[in-house]
Amino acid sequence: MKSFKSTMINYSIASRNPVSQYIQITLCVPVKHLSPVRLQLPAWRAGRYQLANYVQNIRNLQVLSPNGEPISTSKLIKDLWEFIPDHVGEYHVCYEYYCAKMDAGSCWVDDEQIYLNFVNCCFEVEGRADEKIKIEVSYPPHFQICTTLPTENNEFIASNFQQLADSSFLASSRLTHDSFEVSEVNFHLWFHGNAYFDLARFKENIKQFTEKQIEAFGEFPEAEYHFIYLLLPYSHYHGVEHQRGTVITFGSEESLKEHEHMNELMGVSCHELYHAWNVCQIRPREILPYDFSKEAYHKAGWMVEGVTTYMGDLFLLRSGYFSLKEYCQTFEKVLNRESVNFGWQNQSILESSFDLWIDGYTAGIPDKKVSIYTHGALIAFCLDAMLLDENSSLHQVMKILWKRFGKPKIGYTLEDVWEVVLSQTNHPIYFNQFYEDYIAGKEDIFPVVEKHLASLGFDITTKEKEDELSSAFGIVQLAEGKINKLHPASEAYTKLMVGDLVKTQELHTHGLKLSINRFGRDLEVELQITNTLYFKDYVLLDKKNNPKRDIWINV
Fold it and tell me: Do 431 and 422 contact (CB within 8 A), yes or no?
């Protein structure tokens, strides 16, 4: 019998054939007691409240005893294994994981990189989640690496499984690195891919909004932070928050020559940095700590993503990266995304947040739900404008939440959040009515948004969309002519179906004649012309300088 060697859980990861996109993982579990050992693979990851079932990417799992002999394992449920040790020592769990999904929260391996999000592929040893974990990744000697894992004595050591599951790793021969310091915090910029932009200017812009966010909160939660950018040759957009950094996948890389696309990259960067406080630290009680084995239902979507979406854009304005005109254009995009969604008539944002686990990140059935991102951002804007009238702000609320819940790592309830909001006003009835109508309720938030924009010196106007069918008749088509949305107040809603293929259209004096194919049947449909503008674009107009606006920008 071999002697007991180590007390630390250890992961060894390699990719023997990178183009196969498999990695080989050996999990070393020191066993001191002859009781069953259970291995739980995460079913989801932080920042995306939807089951991912990473277990579908595992093959060839086996457990070896301290003498190197395979021992029996049992699979108890889809992603939970158990083995029973027959003596103490180091047991090795060996398996392969398929790394073939490129986004900011997954794993990808090929001939030029090893990119891992450990929550996808690493097991939690049941009952030992608070132990330190050592991670070793083999990679070619000419590769550079970047990771959000902490380092101890030149080794990657996660203080517990929660930290491991919240960490990423990238090794490649094509990494570009830069760094800067703000308030004694080291910030690293890592780029994989081709940077078709001025890196020095990029760094300065990142530094400016980082300074503004730290100034607003008064401190940063970590001593080190990594912005990891995977720049891709095809169209892509995704970001994921981690306590010690963020991974952002963006493409096409060449599109970043254009200011519009650089604004998008800056937007997701500022958004993810704000998450370093909001979600990574200021977190709903239901997900502190994360239980990755099953759904973790909460109703705080408007807080975790709505506030972050709103604040991310606002800090680009406050840092000087956005001009007021550019900020308005970004706000218009939020309005226009929301204007085509009538889910607010059927589900509150609290209900939509709870239902993220069902279909929160896909279109789902027509007009069932609201977006915790864009609808949540409109709620956040309204609250901010209301609080400005009380000589406070939404950020003041977030700063209190940081000190009360985030910094001491205490999960909040929505009642806790609302108590802080009410502490900033002498008019609780007004705020409570807003909560009942627009957070817990299903009222149309657009009139309230318009009112608060006016109070900041903006007008909202509308104009027809370029597609005449959508504005005049309430019909939205895909490029190939298939209908994918109908305005519920339009005549088209009573005569056409989502999925109908428009073959021909003929506009005449009294209306519109459509020839359609409905799942194999050819039909003719006539629609009357009305004076109603159904789907439309919203435009913000700057009326004048406004003292309240100056306070709002410079809070």
Answer: yes
Residue 475 CB neighbours (<10 A):
27
Which three-class secondary structure state does DSSP give residue 226?
A: strand
C-alpha distances in Å from residue 356, one per residue of 18, 67, 339: 34, 46, 21
Specify the long-range contacts of residues 416-419, CB closer than 8 Å, at least 24 apart.
Answer: 417/300, 417/303
For 5-24, give the DSSP string: --SSEEEEEE-SSGGGTEEE
pTM of the complete model = 0.96
Lowest mean pLDDT among 20-24, 159-163, 506-510, 534-538: 506-510
Strand partners, 152: 155
Confidence of residue 1 (pLDDT cuts 50, 70, 90): very low
H/E run at residue 330: helix 324-339
Question: Per-residue pLDDT tens for 90-120?
Answer: 999 999 999 999 999 999 999 999 999 999 9
The full 3-state SS of 261-326, as one line of letters, equals HHHHHHHHHHHHHHCCCECCCECEHHHCCCCCCCCCCCCCHHHHHHHHHHHHHHHHHHCCCCCHHH
Phi, psi dihedrals of residue 255, rounded to the nearest 5°: -65, -20
Q: 356-367: per-residue pLDDT in tens?
A: 999 878 889 999
498 in Cβ contact with 481 (< 8 Å): no
Q: What angle do CA 137, 143, 149 make, to 5 degrees?
A: 45
Structure tokens at 455: 């109070």
Outline where 403-467 has alpha helix (H): 414-422, 428-434, 446-455
Residue 305 has pLDDT above 80, yes or no: yes
Q: Are 70 and 63 within 8 A, CB to CB?
A: yes
Q: Tell me the one-letter amino acid at 288.
A: L
Tokens 């027959």 correspond to what residue? 86
Instruction: Give pLDDT, residue 2.
Output: 40
Reported as a single tens digit per residue, the pLDDT across 208-228 is 999 999 999 999 999 999 999
The answer to whether the beta carbons of residues 149 and 158 sit under 8 Å apart is yes
Which one, of 371, 349, 354, 375, lies nearest residue 362 by Cα? 371
Rounded CA-CA distance 527/425 in Å is: 51
d(CA 515, CA 506): 9
DSSP string, 344-372: GGT--HHHHHHTHHHHTTS--STT----T
Quick one: how far is CA 214 from the chain centroid? 21
Distance CA 148, CA 145 (A): 10
Q: Which two tokens stand for residue 238?
A: 């995704």
